[in-house]
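User: Small ask, check this?
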Amino acid sequence: MSEESREFHKPVRRPAELFDRLFAAEDPAEVSRIAHSTAHALLSRVRSDPDGAIVDRLVTFTDEHGIDDIAELWSRSPAKSLPGALWRLYLLQLMIHDDPRTAALLYERGRTELRSVDEVVAGAPSPAGPDELVALIDMIMRGLFEGDFAVALDRASAFCRVQASGATHVADDYEATEPERASAFTTRALRLSDYAADLAACAALWRRDALS
Protein backbone atom coordinates (compact mmCIF):
# COMPACT_ATOMS: atom_id res chain seq x y z
CA MET A 1 0.00 0.00 0.00
CA SER A 2 1.40 3.40 -0.96
CA GLU A 3 1.86 6.23 1.52
CA GLU A 4 -0.69 8.26 -0.44
CA SER A 5 -3.35 5.59 0.06
CA ARG A 6 -2.74 5.77 3.82
CA GLU A 7 -3.59 9.48 3.89
CA PHE A 8 -6.46 11.10 5.71
CA HIS A 9 -9.15 9.53 3.52
CA LYS A 10 -8.16 5.97 4.39
CA PRO A 11 -10.20 5.84 7.63
CA VAL A 12 -13.46 6.32 5.69
CA ARG A 13 -13.98 2.59 5.36
CA ARG A 14 -17.30 2.69 3.52
CA PRO A 15 -16.94 2.36 -0.27
CA ALA A 16 -16.72 5.78 -1.89
CA GLU A 17 -19.70 5.23 -4.18
CA LEU A 18 -21.95 4.34 -1.22
CA PHE A 19 -20.67 7.30 0.73
CA ASP A 20 -21.53 9.62 -2.15
CA ARG A 21 -25.03 8.19 -2.46
CA LEU A 22 -25.71 8.84 1.20
CA PHE A 23 -25.39 12.54 0.53
CA ALA A 24 -26.70 12.68 -3.01
CA ALA A 25 -30.33 12.36 -1.94
CA GLU A 26 -30.05 14.99 0.76
CA ASP A 27 -30.72 18.69 0.55
CA PRO A 28 -27.30 20.36 1.03
CA ALA A 29 -28.88 23.01 3.22
CA GLU A 30 -30.39 20.32 5.44
CA VAL A 31 -27.08 18.44 5.63
CA SER A 32 -25.38 21.67 6.68
CA ARG A 33 -28.06 22.39 9.29
CA ILE A 34 -27.71 18.92 10.80
CA ALA A 35 -23.92 19.14 10.83
CA HIS A 36 -23.90 22.44 12.68
CA SER A 37 -26.70 21.55 15.10
CA THR A 38 -25.16 18.21 16.08
CA ALA A 39 -21.70 19.71 16.57
CA HIS A 40 -23.02 22.51 18.77
CA ALA A 41 -25.33 20.22 20.72
CA LEU A 42 -22.59 17.68 21.40
CA LEU A 43 -20.02 20.23 22.46
CA SER A 44 -22.33 22.31 24.65
CA ARG A 45 -23.76 19.21 26.34
CA VAL A 46 -20.39 17.69 27.20
CA ARG A 47 -18.66 20.93 28.14
CA SER A 48 -21.50 21.96 30.47
CA ASP A 49 -21.13 18.69 32.38
CA PRO A 50 -17.84 16.99 31.42
CA ASP A 51 -18.56 13.53 32.77
CA GLY A 52 -15.33 11.54 32.62
CA ALA A 53 -16.88 8.42 31.12
CA ILE A 54 -18.59 10.40 28.34
CA VAL A 55 -15.41 12.30 27.53
CA ASP A 56 -13.49 9.01 27.41
CA ARG A 57 -16.00 7.61 24.91
CA LEU A 58 -15.77 10.69 22.71
CA VAL A 59 -11.97 10.71 22.73
CA THR A 60 -11.81 7.01 21.82
CA PHE A 61 -14.85 7.01 19.52
CA THR A 62 -12.99 6.26 16.31
CA ASP A 63 -11.04 3.40 17.90
CA GLU A 64 -14.28 1.48 18.32
CA HIS A 65 -16.50 2.86 15.58
CA GLY A 66 -14.16 4.12 12.87
CA ILE A 67 -14.86 7.41 11.15
CA ASP A 68 -17.97 6.61 9.12
CA ASP A 69 -20.59 7.96 11.52
CA ILE A 70 -18.66 11.19 12.03
CA ALA A 71 -18.13 11.51 8.28
CA GLU A 72 -21.87 11.37 7.69
CA LEU A 73 -22.35 14.27 10.09
CA TRP A 74 -19.41 16.62 9.55
CA SER A 75 -17.16 15.79 6.59
CA ARG A 76 -18.73 18.25 4.14
CA SER A 77 -18.78 21.19 6.49
CA PRO A 78 -16.70 24.31 5.76
CA ALA A 79 -13.19 24.19 7.19
CA LYS A 80 -13.75 27.27 9.34
CA SER A 81 -16.79 25.99 11.19
CA LEU A 82 -17.36 23.99 14.35
CA PRO A 83 -18.28 20.73 12.57
CA GLY A 84 -15.42 21.30 10.12
CA ALA A 85 -12.96 21.70 12.99
CA LEU A 86 -14.23 18.58 14.77
CA TRP A 87 -14.02 16.56 11.55
CA ARG A 88 -10.41 17.60 10.97
CA LEU A 89 -9.45 16.81 14.55
CA TYR A 90 -10.95 13.33 14.41
CA LEU A 91 -9.19 12.66 11.10
CA LEU A 92 -5.91 13.90 12.57
CA GLN A 93 -6.35 11.66 15.59
CA LEU A 94 -7.13 8.65 13.43
CA MET A 95 -4.12 9.32 11.22
CA ILE A 96 -1.85 9.22 14.28
CA HIS A 97 -3.50 6.10 15.71
CA ASP A 98 -3.36 4.36 12.34
CA ASP A 99 0.39 4.82 11.87
CA PRO A 100 2.04 6.18 15.03
CA ARG A 101 5.55 5.24 13.91
CA THR A 102 5.39 7.44 10.82
CA ALA A 103 3.76 10.19 12.87
CA ALA A 104 6.61 10.06 15.37
CA LEU A 105 9.21 10.09 12.59
CA LEU A 106 7.64 13.17 11.00
CA TYR A 107 7.19 14.93 14.31
CA GLU A 108 10.80 14.48 15.38
CA ARG A 109 12.07 15.54 11.95
CA GLY A 110 9.75 18.53 11.93
CA ARG A 111 10.79 19.60 15.42
CA THR A 112 14.45 19.55 14.35
CA GLU A 113 13.90 21.42 11.10
CA LEU A 114 11.20 23.91 12.06
CA ARG A 115 12.90 25.44 15.12
CA SER A 116 9.79 27.32 16.25
CA VAL A 117 7.59 27.53 19.33
CA ASP A 118 5.13 25.08 17.76
CA GLU A 119 6.56 22.06 19.56
CA VAL A 120 6.10 23.90 22.87
CA VAL A 121 2.52 24.87 22.00
CA ALA A 122 1.69 21.33 20.88
CA GLY A 123 3.08 19.95 24.14
CA ALA A 124 4.83 16.77 23.03
CA PRO A 125 7.67 15.38 25.16
CA SER A 126 11.18 15.24 23.74
CA PRO A 127 11.86 12.87 22.16
CA ALA A 128 8.34 11.90 21.11
CA GLY A 129 7.95 8.24 20.13
CA PRO A 130 4.84 6.53 18.74
CA ASP A 131 3.22 6.04 22.17
CA GLU A 132 3.87 9.64 23.13
CA LEU A 133 2.31 10.91 19.89
CA VAL A 134 -0.82 8.83 20.43
CA ALA A 135 -1.08 10.10 24.01
CA LEU A 136 -0.57 13.69 22.85
CA ILE A 137 -3.29 13.68 20.20
CA ASP A 138 -5.70 12.05 22.65
CA MET A 139 -4.85 14.72 25.23
CA ILE A 140 -5.56 17.43 22.66
CA MET A 141 -8.90 15.79 21.86
CA ARG A 142 -9.75 15.63 25.55
CA GLY A 143 -9.07 19.36 25.80
CA LEU A 144 -11.87 20.00 23.31
CA PHE A 145 -14.42 18.59 25.71
CA GLU A 146 -13.16 19.49 29.16
CA GLY A 147 -10.56 22.25 28.70
CA ASP A 148 -10.10 25.51 26.85
CA PHE A 149 -11.46 24.77 23.39
CA ALA A 150 -9.40 27.47 21.65
CA VAL A 151 -6.21 26.27 23.34
CA ALA A 152 -6.93 22.72 22.14
CA LEU A 153 -7.36 24.01 18.60
CA ASP A 154 -4.12 25.99 18.83
CA ARG A 155 -2.28 22.92 20.09
CA ALA A 156 -3.65 20.85 17.22
CA SER A 157 -2.66 23.56 14.76
CA ALA A 158 0.90 23.64 16.13
CA PHE A 159 1.02 19.85 16.02
CA CYS A 160 0.05 19.95 12.33
CA ARG A 161 2.74 22.54 11.53
CA VAL A 162 5.45 20.38 13.10
CA GLN A 163 4.20 17.30 11.24
CA ALA A 164 3.97 19.23 7.99
CA SER A 165 7.57 20.39 8.33
CA GLY A 166 8.68 16.82 8.96
CA ALA A 167 6.73 15.50 5.97
CA THR A 168 8.23 18.18 3.71
CA HIS A 169 11.80 17.33 4.67
CA VAL A 170 11.24 13.57 4.47
CA ALA A 171 9.78 14.12 1.00
CA ASP A 172 12.99 15.93 0.03
CA ASP A 173 15.01 12.94 1.26
CA TYR A 174 13.11 10.59 -1.07
CA GLU A 175 12.88 12.89 -4.09
CA ALA A 176 15.89 11.49 -5.94
CA THR A 177 15.45 7.79 -5.14
CA GLU A 178 11.71 7.21 -4.57
CA PRO A 179 9.72 9.98 -6.27
CA GLU A 180 6.32 8.36 -5.64
CA ARG A 181 7.04 8.11 -1.93
CA ALA A 182 8.26 11.71 -1.97
CA SER A 183 5.01 12.79 -3.65
CA ALA A 184 2.95 11.04 -0.97
CA PHE A 185 4.79 12.86 1.80
CA THR A 186 4.47 16.15 -0.06
CA THR A 187 0.70 15.61 -0.27
CA ARG A 188 0.60 14.88 3.44
CA ALA A 189 2.60 18.04 4.18
CA LEU A 190 0.19 20.17 2.16
CA ARG A 191 -2.84 18.72 3.92
CA LEU A 192 -1.29 19.17 7.32
CA SER A 193 -0.39 22.77 6.47
CA ASP A 194 -3.99 23.40 5.41
CA TYR A 195 -5.27 21.82 8.62
CA ALA A 196 -2.89 23.95 10.68
CA ALA A 197 -4.24 27.14 9.09
CA ASP A 198 -7.87 26.01 9.38
CA LEU A 199 -7.59 25.05 13.04
CA ALA A 200 -5.76 28.27 13.94
CA ALA A 201 -8.53 30.25 12.24
CA CYS A 202 -11.16 28.26 14.14
CA ALA A 203 -9.39 29.01 17.43
CA ALA A 204 -9.49 32.74 16.65
CA LEU A 205 -13.18 32.53 15.74
CA TRP A 206 -13.97 30.62 18.94
CA ARG A 207 -12.32 33.34 21.04
CA ARG A 208 -14.58 35.90 19.35
CA ASP A 209 -17.63 33.68 19.93
CA ALA A 210 -17.95 33.48 16.14
CA LEU A 211 -17.28 29.80 15.37
CA SER A 212 -20.60 28.62 14.01
